[in-house]
User: Fold these one by one.
Assistant:
Number 1:
Amino acid sequence: MPSSTQIRLSWVLQIVAAVIMGQTLFFKFSGAPEPVHIFTTLGAEPYGRWLAGVSELVAVVLLLWPAMAGAGGLLGLGVMSGALLAHLTTKLGIVVLDDGGLLFAMGVVVWIACAGIVFIRRNQLLGQVNALRRKFLPS
C-alpha cells in the first residue's frame, strides 16, 4: 500500500502525464500539420494517428480515475515507448518540423511520469491482474 506521500506524488505525475497527452489530442484528431507529417513519415497516416489519439485519450481517462490510475500509467508508458522508439529508430528523428525536439522532450516527460505511476501503483496493478486471473482462469 503506497504511503500518502507516494499517492500525492502519483497524482502529480498523473496530472502531468494527463495534461501533456490531453493537450496533444486536439492536434491528432483535427489533422494538424505536425501529427499528419509524423504519421505520414511513419507510413501510418491517418489510421496510426487516430489509433495513437484514441490510445492517449483512454490513458488520460484512466490516469484521472483513481482506481485505474495504474492501468492508465501502464497504457501511457506503452504508447510513449512506441512514440519515442519511432522518433529514435526511424527517419522521423528527435527534431520534427523545426520544433527543437519539444515533442520528443514532452514524450520523455510523459514516459518518466508514467513509469513512476506504474512503480508507485504496482500493487494496484497486480491486484487487478490477479482479480482478472481469478475471474477468467478459475482454479
Number 2:
Amino acid sequence: MKKNIRLGVVCLARNTFDFAAAEQLYGNILKDLQTLDSVEVCAVKQLVMEVSDAIKAASELYDNRVDGIAVISGTFHLGHLVLEIKKRVDKPLLLWGLPELPYNGGKIRLNSVCGVNLNASNLVKSGINDFTYIIDGKIDENWLDAVRMTAALRSAKVGILGYRAHGFFNLDVDELALYRKFGLLIDHYELEQVWNYAADEKQKQVYAEMLRQRFDVSGISASQLERVAELSVKLKTFIDDNGLTALAVRCWPEFAAGYGIAPCAAMSLLQSLDVVLACEGDIDCALTMLCHRAAGAETPFMADLSQVNLKEDHALMWHCGVAPANLCDGKCAATLDTYFAGGKGVTAGFVMKSGAINMARLDSVNGHYRLFQQKGEALPMEKLLTGTYAKARFDRPMKEVLDKVIYSGVAHHVSMVYGDFTQAMLIFARLSGIEVL
C-alpha cells in the first residue's frame, strides 16, 4: 500500500488572461484529485493572483502540514507568487502547466507554459531545484510517489542492531549527512537487547504455525523451529515497542553463536508481514527499501548481484536466505535450511517469483548520496541453490550494468522489488538533490 501523503494544491493566475477558464479547469482538476488513493488533498480554493493571495495561501498550506505542493499555472502570472509560497512552505514542488485552450478572438488565453518557465527560472536562479514539471491535464503520479518517498524518510525512525557486518566498510554511513539530506536520525541498539527481549508464548505458537504453513520445515529440528519463532516474536515486539519504521541487523558473525541461530528465517517471515529489515547492518539499503515501499512496492528484498552470465546476459540476484516468504514462485518447495554457521544458520530457501523488477540503492560516499537503479525481469528457474534468489535480465546489457556497479563503487546490496518504480525514483533523486548514476 502506498504511503499516505498530504498534497497541497494552488492555482496561479492573472486577470490579463482568461482566468475564468483557468478557474473552471482548476475545479475539474480538484475533482479529479479527490479520486487518488492515499492522498489527502489540501487545496487553496481561490485563484492566487496577488502577492497577498500567495502569502495567505502559503499560511494555509503550512497549517495543513503538506508533504508537497502542486503549483498550477492556470494562466501566466506574477513571478512573486511561487517564491512567496516556497519561502514559507519549503516542500517539493510540481510546476504544473495546462495545455493551451483554443484561441478566442486571436488572443492566447492561458499562456500557462510560459508561467511554468517563469517559475522554474526564478527557482533555479535562487538555488532551488527540488521541483519537476508537467504540461498535462492530470497530475504526475510518479511525482506523487517521489513525494511519498521524501515524506517516508523524513518521518521514519530507523534503527541499527549491533553494527555493520564484519569487514563491510562500504556500508558505513555518515549519520549527520543522513540527517542533513533526509531529516533522518539513526537509533543504535545492541544485539543483546533483542536476544534478551521477552517473547509472548502465544505469539511464539502463532509464528511457529506461520512457519509451518509457509515452509517445509523437515530440514530443521523442532528446537530450531521454536527458536526461529521465538526470535520472530522478539524482533517484531522490539520494533513495535521502539516505534521503528525499519531495522538494519548485524546478522553475523556474532548472532548465531550468541543467540543460537542466525536471524535469516525470522527476517524472511517478518518481511512477508511488511516489516522492513536489512541484513548485515546496511542502513542505506534499509532506506532504499523504505522508498520502494512508500511508492507501493510489496515487501522489498535486499539482494546481492551475486553471479553474472555475460554470454547469456543475465544475473543471479541472491542472498543467503532472507527474502520475504511471500515472494516464493509457488512452484518450488520453500524450505528452512541449516547450511552455514555450524548448523545454526537457519535460512529460507526458494526461487523468487517471475515478473518485472526494479532494483535500486541509495548509496553514500563520504556523506554524498547517489542513486543506482536498474529495471528488468525476474525469469523462471529451477531451485538449484540454498538461499533465496531470482534469475534477472535487465533492460540493458549485463556488461553495462556490471560496469556501472563496479566502476561507480556501488555497495553490494540493492533493494529489489516487483514492478517499475524507475521514474518515481528518478524524480525522488531530483527532489532530494541526489546524483543519479
Number 3:
Amino acid sequence: MSGLYIFAGCMHFVTPKMFKRIVPPYIPYRMAMVYVSGLFEVLFGTGLIFDETRSWSALGLILLLIAVFPANIYMAKRFREKGHKYTWATYARLPLQFLLIYWAYLYW
C-alpha cells in the first residue's frame, strides 16, 4: 500500500497537467491542489512504513481519499459527456475508492 501511494503521489509531480484536468473547476488553485494532494500521498505513503506513524498516515489517507472523491466523480462525468472509450473504467473506479478507504482503515 505504501508503494502505491508513493508512486501515485510522485506522478502528481511528473504529469501534473493530467491530474489538473480531473480537478473540478469549482476548486480554486487547481494546480496547487494537484501538488498538495501528491505531496500528501507521498508523505502518508511513506508514513505507512513506520510503526510510529502508520496509524496517523492511514487516517490521513482516509481523509485524502474522501477529499479527492469529487475529482473522481467529475472525471467520470467528463468521460461520459465526451463519449470516451474508457468511461466504464472511470465509473468502476468510484466503488474502488471505498475499497481503498477500507484498506487504509486496516492500517489505522
Number 4:
Amino acid sequence: MKRTPLHGWHKGHGANMAEFGGYEMPLWYGSAKEEHLSVLTKAGLFDTSHMAVVEVKGSNAFHLLQKCFSRDLRECLGPTKRPLTPGNCVYGVFLNVSGGVVDDAIVDQLDENHYLCVVNAGMGGVLTQHLLDHAEGLSVHIRDLTDEVGKIDIQGPAAAKVLKKVLQDPGAVFEGMRYFSFKGHFEDSSGPTGTVLLKNNIPILLSRTGYTGEFGFEIFCDPTRVTEVWEMILDAGRDFGITPCGLAARDSLRAGAVLPLSHQDIGPWPFLRNPWIFALPFNEDQTGFTKDFTGGEALLEIHDADYTLPFIGNDLRKVPVTETTTVQTLDGSPIGTVLTCVTDMGIGKVEDKIYSVASPDKPVGFAPRGLSCGFVKVKKALKAGEAIRLTDGRRAITVTITYDIRPDRTARVPIQSML
C-alpha cells in the first residue's frame, strides 16, 4: 500500500488505519461519530493527499476537455450558465464510449489554456491515459501529478475562522470567494488567480469546495510541507474545537449530503437516472445535449437504465453492503442492489420531520441518534416516500426513498456569514 505524507502523523496519533484506493489511510482516530459531528458543529480536518491531480495545458486544452468532460465549459457556472473562467471550478464526470463512468472529477481553470482535474485515489494514471487516447492531433500537454501534490480538507462552520489565523492576507483571500471558486497555486507562482500564502510563506491553492456538503475548503500544497500545514491548522483551530477526521466520517458525511462515491455509487454503467445528472450538458427541453462529448451519444440511445436513488432509514441501523445485499419491495420481491449504506450521526426524526444537529429550527433538547442513509440501484422507478426493504440475508431494515437526506447543509453559505 502507498502512504500519504501524513502517514506517520496518523500512526503516531492512534489512527485506526485501513486500505483505501491503494493507500493506507486513517478510518478514525477515537470516534467516527464525534468526527462526523465536529464537521457539522465546529471543524474537521481530513488528509486527502491520496487523491490525484491531472494537469491539462496547451492551446487545445479547452477542446480536449470539451470532448472528454461531461460539463459544457461554455455554460456551466451558476443558474445563468456562464462559461468556466480562471479561478472557478466545476464538478462533472469522464465517461467511456458506452456512457459509463471512468471517474468523477472537479475541473479547475487556472488560465485560458490551463486546467487541473482533481480525481479519486489511484485514478491519476487512468484519467491521464483516457485523455491521451482522445488527444491525437491536439496541441496539449497532460501531466499526471499523482503523489506530487499534497491535499488537506478543512470542513465545518468554523473553517474560515481557523484559516483566518494561518493565512498571511485572509481579507484579500476571502474577498469574493464564492462556492466552487479558488485562489492561488500549490507552486510558488502567481497568475490570474493570484498567490495565496500561509504564515510560513507556504504557497497553497485554496478551493471553496469539499466532500461533506458543509462549508469548507480544500487545500493543495507541496507534499513536503503537508505535515507542517496540517499541524499549523490544528494548532490554529484548537480554540474552535477542530478535530482530525478519518475516512469513516468522510463517507457518512458525503452520503448524508447526497454525494456519490465513484466506483461505488457511479461506475461502469450508464450515467443516467441518478441524483447527479445535472453534470450532463442537457439542453433546455432535455431532449439532447448542448455539445458532443465522449459517451454522450450512447446515453441518448439508452432507455432502460437502472435508477440510482437516495434513501433514508427510520433509525441508525444499517446493513452491510456485499454482493448478496439486495433491495426488495415490502412483499419480498427483489428489485435491485444496495450501493451505499451508512449512518449519518448528525440527523434524527421528530414527528416524522428530519432535523440536523446544525438545523436552526431544531427542537429544544434535540439530540440525534443518527439515521441510516445511502443509495440503491433498482430496476424500477420509485417515488419519494415509497418504502423498500434492504437485506443481506441475515439483517433487514425498512427505508424510504427520498430526494434529499441531511437538511440545512452549509456548503453554499456566503463566506462572510461564516467569519
